[in-house]
Specification:
This protein is of the alpha+beta class and about 675 residues long. It has an eight-stranded parallel β-barrel, surrounded by five helices. Strands 24, 26, 27, 29, 34, 35, 36 and 38 form an eight-stranded antiparallel beta sheet that branches. Strands 15, 16, 17, 18, 20, 21 and 23 form a seven-stranded antiparallel beta sheet that branches.
């Protein structure tokens, strides 16, 4: 047990008691001077990046659970209290875990309601009117620049997105970037974007260049270009990189620190790796972020950090599973998981606001592992210290001296570790302008003169598997919207009036290949449960013109980065072309796609047909209009989700169902 030590007493106040360690703790506390006159960079905030279809399933959550999730992310003094939200400017192209819809599929097309990013920005702004909104493109529609991203078309595409946010939703976009994780290649485009934004009377600032760390290129190339080109330098408001700690020790080149621009880690994750899977508890996700937020400033000079992603609302078999601050990818159940990363983030966002100033000389490292950053409010009075002891093995006492106009009022202490989750653990009075506190190892603390912090208490329902059997006739989905639970991986699947029959159907609408960001699989969309084994996929299909349609089953992996050349997910695909040629394929990432069976029937273009793909043990059966085309024995995939897809052609689906084997 811990003994109690009297820390101090204000006149007329009660004694304040604090738990302290046994006699083995350090005898002489470290002294930290909190000096309000200390210079330092301006804190720009902590945020998250909704991109790569990472938020796809969130909008499908029923109330009140959807609002509870949004509160944990964005509501001030409740959960993560995010201060920035960056969203993808969609291009109908796979951008990690799926494709996000474009607002301009042609030069004349404008629809500022497609997808979910507009909605998400609006919900974030409702909860936090001061949240900073940011945008960035991963890909673009094929018409842009005749396939050339760095073009006037693209600059106008970005400007139109920002104007749409303002005109349709009343949202002001404060920042926009160039091209996600593409090596800086065009100073002229950056200046063109600035010119076009100005022509549209948009004061949106440019962040450049969101580069990923690679062994063959320097992610800081923009610095040299800015030094040589004053117009380029003037066009850029913020210099940004992604994952600055990924390749070992966090280092920022001296030129970045003297360029005269804010530095942002504009996409980051715990463990210094974009491929690291965040833990759903404090042990990995929370502890890593506790270190990352502090070290990004202490060792990198970064004044903002944006985490990809705010929430894991995509299926686990997609790339980089569990990247989010929260976990919510079963909307049919309403279940969500408030992970340790939420509270690690809250230790900064609930105690310092954008516009506060770091106190450079009051930031540093602890002698027995750990570090701390200090910030003061815009009026120079209130202050907060965020201190972490993640790698420490023993308790450490620190004596704080407060000077330089900073408040000498009561200090409120909040703590998170494996035993406590964002708890208000002490209120300390000052004595002679100072106070002492003993910090436990493997913990995260916030010390502050501010008040109002809080911890959300909403609880989710239990998780449940994807419903089975499952049927969807698209009657309840509004036109031009995506149906619940289906996650597009390339192209766009939206509900439209059926051709050749009454009612609504699901249509793949993208016929021109987009400008890709990374791998470019064929258009397809998926849902279901990765643990499903024996089942039948049933669908009515109509191919509008030249092209193909497909049903896919036992999808056990849909990570497009595992094999950048793979056009299909890892699973079985029954594909029929408009001319009647059909094929049953086994596709496994990292291996050559095998043709299990193939043949030809009469042309199927312009007519409704019925496709089935059935699994029972190792038996895989493909049927067209109830006529068996193939029955093969194969052990390549024993379980997995289902999907439907096409080539880059218009195809409609109706009466989609996943049924028990034999039905």
């Amino acid at each position: 047990m811990h003994r109690l030590r009297i820390l101090g007493m204000a006149a007329g106040a009660a004694l304040i008691l604090q738990a302290v360690p046994p006699l083995t703790a350090q005898a002489s506390p470290q002294v930290v001077v909190l000096d309000g006159a200390s210079p330092g960079r301006i804190f720009d905030g902590i945020g998250a990046v909704s991109a790569g279809a990472s938020s796809r399933l969130l909008i499908d959550y029923p109330e009140p659970y959807r609002s509870q999730i949004l509160d944990y992310l964005f509501k001030p003094n409740y959960g993560a209290s995010l201060q920035h939200l960056k969203v993808e400017i969609g291009g109908d192209v796979n951008s990690t875990d799926g494709s996000e819809p474009s607002s301009m599929r042609t030069r004349m097309d404008r629809d500022y309601t497609r997808g979910y990013e507009w909605w998400l920005m609006n919900e974030a702004r409702k909860r936090n009117p001061k949240i900073v909104l940011d945008t960035l493109a991963w890909g673009a529609p094929g018409w842009v620049g005749g396939g050339n991203f760095y073009s006037d078309d693209m600059a106008n595409y970005v400007a139109d997105f920002i104007e749409g946010a303002r005109s349709k939703w009343g949202l002001d976009i404060a920042y926009t970037g160039i091209w996600n994780e593409k090596h800086f290649a065009s100073a002229e485009y950056v200046k063109t974007l600035r010119r076009v934004l100005d022509e549209h009377h948009l004061d949106t600032k440019i962040v450049c260049c969101d580069e990923y760390p690679r062994s063959d290129v320097d992610q800081w190339t923009i610095l040299g270009a800015m030094e040589k080109d004053p117009a380029l330098r003037d066009a850029i408001a913020v210099v940004s990189v992604h994952y600055p700690r990924m390749r070992g020790k966090l280092t920022t080149p001296p030129a970045a620190l003297t360029i005269g621009k804010p530095l942002w880690s504009s996409e980051d994750q715990p463990q210094s790796s974009a491929s690291t899977i965040l833990s759903r508890d404090w042990a990995i996700g929370g502890r890593s972020l506790a270190q990352l937020y502090n070290e990004n400033y202490l060792k990198g000079g970064f004044t903002a950090t944006e985490i990809w992603s705010p929430i894991t609302s995509y299926y686990d078999i997609l790339a980089a599973p569990n990247s989010g601050l929260m976990y919510a990818n079963t909307p049919w159940s309403g279940h969500y998981d408030v992970q340790g990363a939420i509270w690690a983030t809250a230790h900064t966002t609930q105690f310092a606001q954008p516009g506060w100033q770091y106190l450079q000389k009051s930031c540093g490292e602890l002698p027995e592992k750990g570090d701390y950053v200090a910030l003061k409010s815009t009026d120079g009075t209130n202050w907060s210290v965020v201190l972490q002891t993640i790698d420490a093995k023993d308790p450490q006492s620190v004596h704080f001296i407060v000077k330089g106009g900073l408040s000498v009022g009561t200090v409120h202490v909040w703590e998170t570790n494996s035993r406590r989750t964002f708890e208000h653990v002490a209120d300390l009075p000052m004595r002679d302008g100072g106070f002492t506190y003993t910090f436990d190892p493997d913990s995260l603390y916030s010390l502050t003169t501010t008040t109002g912090q809080g911890k959300g208490r909403a609880e989710p329902p239990a998780s449940a598997p994807f419903p089975f059997p499952w049927r969807e006739n698209f009657r309840d989905t509004p036109l031009n919207r995506s149906p619940r639970f289906l996650a597009d991986q390339d192209g766009a699947f939206e509900v439209r009036p059926c051709d050749g029959r009454a009612g609504k159907c699901l249509e793949q609408v993208i016929t021109e290949r987009p400008i890709p960001w990374g791998p470019l699989p064929d258009p397809w969309t998926l849902a279901g449960d990765v643990n499903w084994t024996d089942y039948t996929i049933d669908a009515d299909v109509r191919i509008e013109a030249t092209g193909s349609a497909m049903v896919i089953g036992r999808i056990d992996s849909a990570d497009v980065f595992r094999n950048g050349e793979a056009r299909l997910p890892s699973g079985y695909t029954f594909r029929i072309h408009s001319d009647g040629i059909w094929e049953l394929l086994d596709s496994t990432y990292g291996k050559v796609t095998r043709t299990l069976a193939q043949g030809q029937t009469a042309p199927v273009v312009g007519q409704w047909h019925h496709l089935q793909l059935a699994f029972h043990g190792q038996n895989v059966v493909a049927r067209l209009d109830s006529r068996q085309l193939a029955s093969v024995q194969d052990s390549g995939h024993a379980h997995g989700m289902f999907g439907i897809g096409s080539d880059w052609n218009v195809v409609q689906f109706d009466n989609l169902a996943v049924l028990p084997a034999g039905q």
